[in-house]
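Title: Prediction job returns without error message
Component: structure pipeline
Severity: low
Priority: P3
Assignee: unassigned

Description:
Job completed but the reporter wants confirmation the result is attached to the right record. Sequence as submitted:
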Amino acid sequence: LALVPPIALRYPIKKWAAAAALSGALAYSVISGATVPTQRAFLMIGLVLAAVILDRRGLSMRMVAWAAAVILLLRPESLLGASFQLSFAAVTALIAAYEVLRERRVYGNAGRRSWFRVFLIYLGGVALTTLIAGAATAPFAIYNFNRMADFGLVANLVGVPVTALWIMPFAVAAFALMPFGLESIALAPMGWGLDVLVWVAKSVAAWPGAITLIPAMPTWGLAIVAIGGLWLTIWRSRWRLLGGPVIVAGLASVFAVTPPDVLIGGRGKVMAVQGADGSLMVSDTRKSKFGQGIWLRRAGLKKALSWPREGYSRDRRLICDGLGCLYRKGGVTVALTKNYGALVEDCRLADLVVSLEPVRGKCPAPLAVIDRFDLWRNGAYAIWIGGDGGVRIESVNGARGDRPWVHRPGKTGGT
């Protein structure tokens, strides 16, 4: 419309464009499934476009607050999801960083620039955006996935230009050609761009050291990081920098986590113990691979070791035979019993007994007895053994608490 002077000079074409863009953004949100990042983007861009229509100014950080408030009112459970955390961490950090850069920007010669210089400035913007967003989302990625992508900057320097300058323009062209049945003209080159994007992702992910595995971060550590990040991004004066040490303190909580010494799957198909070197020894590496993957990820490990069929493990913490195993640490003996025939001896020798069979009679183990019925009622178990011989036991349902949505088999009124 700006190319037609009589219309551009007589009518509010900017408001018309904003209304059309708002309709398009809503349509995209619907067809894409309206995930949390999409909802956040739609609410923020919707506020900006509404401000254009109403001759108001959209304030960036307030847009984030608006989007977060609406999403949390409609879907409060999304706060605990990785999608909400990663999306809002990235956009909040980017807005705060570019606000600072905008305030300090020195306008130089606005003369004509070469295409090469413009492209270098574009790549610099991509790199800066990647560094800011990567730093903001790293703590949440560590908490939710226990890993950090080390070469994300390299991948984005190729992937972002390919997406913005090749894939998306052809996607728009495909939509424009669909009414005429000619969308294949644009979809074919769009597919070539997608192939390049996938190739870049696979190539960078295959580089040595592309992923750093990090042990689990406690929830209180992530909360400290979030508080420090909000302090750093919301305030405008210099005392915002005090949020930096708070973030570092939260990240240091990774070193305060002690992994469990014994893990028992909810169905009893697989058990695991911690080796003296921090490795994870699993009863059967072929079973419950999903559960084993979670255990390994939480411990920051890539591979599990198998229990010895007979005899001792390398660190001599674990000794096994055909009926089960004994695990010793800090003066505490844990019996990991697979067969009912070993229960009598294990109950007499061990301080704590874990039995994959029901323990119907009295078992004199002084610390605790966990049998098949406990696993059925409470789900998976984790056991920590202290250096003083103390033992801490946690179960999945115990951590969830007594809430209506927690499944408790055998309990009257359970869901």
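Comment from assignee: result matches the submitted record. The chain is about 50% helix and 15% strand.
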